[in-house]
């Protein structure tokens, strides 16, 4: 059993504030960096003489490498100390940022993005793991609320900041803005970060890492390109087949290994599995709308890129404000009713996006999206925390890695699904409203996914949420 003192003060960390500041700063720049480049791509294309398909790889490669790194962070967390791993991750991110800032060509810029993604892929699950280890179980909702505040505000600021910077300064300024924050965070981490994770020194299984890379990489690439290309195109089919075969092989191998790279036995816990699926459905709905709504505004309703970014801003701000509040509510009441109420809001607002036409206003889109994000804030962090709370401390690194990985895959699937539906159900011969018909259909499907999530939410049980999980693998 776990003694009372260790529950009160997990991992012996007396002053958590310095560690929290270091972790939140690292997470902020990592997430901010993901959203900075979208607005700047036209400027980069012009400066480096690139076409759109080549330039888009600057976004795609970040998502791919990020998704490949996340599954192996559980292994890295058990292999290296907290300080070494965090400093290494931020060091990789900082080196990549510097390389992007001074890149004389596309090749150097791509190399910088790969380094950035590798660092960011480690930082996010590491941060969640540390939060779960240094906070007692009855305070984890509030801790994850702070984490949610960062992951909501960074994407909200990114496109607007990027749009303003590239209008005033060269595109390299995006990376020069991020670099000082990274350097300061590394310096603070050197002095303030403590070792809180447990080292088990697992054996490096090279085949597992290769299979993980091919499996998750193949699936992420397949889904992320299926939305913009045909689902029947050869490179989509090949990447999906490779991804599925490698993933099945990877899972079977992990179940046989004594110390797996990624522990799939976390899915033996029914509540963890339930909340992971629920989080995936909510994230599919979130990320799909974040892609489809700007496309609607810019290509069908005649709004500018800046206006489409500003339309999403109120929702992101509301989500950011609500995350700490829902975290505290979770600590007091649990996830069940938060998720149920949140999903009812998501369903209602999602179906309000199924009757759009060429007269739809900026105010309508911004208001409905803001209320929708209020609902998403009631679902995402509470269900994630409820699931991870079911795991013993030695399984938390695997739980956070699995949770982040599944969310990455869900985001790729959600984007591909909604963009494909939007394109396939558009009726160009009927003009703008015919094109918008495809958007309406995509939100009908998003609403059905949210209804599935609502049904699942009724199976969440909160009665054991304050019980400190015990047990080993």
UniProtKB/TrEMBL annotation:
For this UniProt record, give its keywords in alphabetical order, as a comma-separated list. Cell membrane, Membrane, Transmembrane, Transmembrane helix, Transport
Could you tell me which Gene3D superfamilies the record lists for this protein?
Answer: MFS general substrate transporter like domains, Multidrug resistance protein D
The record places domain Major facilitator superfamily (MFS) profile at 19-465
Q: Where in the cell is it found?
A: Cell membrane
PROSITE patterns given for it? MFS (PS50850)
Membrane topology classification: Multi-pass membrane protein
Mention any Pfam family matching this sequence: MFS_1
Q: Which residues cross the membrane?
A: 17-37, 57-77, 84-108, 114-135, 147-167, 173-192, 204-223, 235-252, 272-297, 303-325, 337-356, 362-388, 409-427, 439-460
Specify whether Cell membrane is a keyword of the entry.
yes
Primary place of residence?
Answer: membrane
**Superkingdom of the source species:** Bacteria
Q: What name does the UniProt record give this protein?
A: DHA2 family efflux MFS transporter permease subunit
